[in-house]
Request: fold
Amino acid sequence: MGLASLLLSTRNAGIMATDYHPEAGKFLLENARLNQSTNIPFLRASWDNKDDGLGKLDLLIGADLLYERDHIEQVSKFIERHANAKCEILLADLW
Reply:
């Protein structure tokens, strides 16, 4: 959990990891510990929550997001809500 977050953390990037799974924050914390990384800020968030408090972002990275068909529309709307006018978006998925 959180490979991109772990990598960006080692480069001192200002990041916020998100996931909806109730155990994701614990998994991220343990992976950070195992990789001698600093604690990574984490927010349990749903793609369809319009009041998640994330605001507009310069970079959005997502991996393995589209494992159900309705996720395509949810992820698209999430990106529309949170991408700055000049935003890099990197999605990696096997579908």
Summary: The chain has a mean pLDDT of 90. The chain is about 35% helix and 25% strand. Strands lie at 17-19, 42-44, 57-63, 83-92.
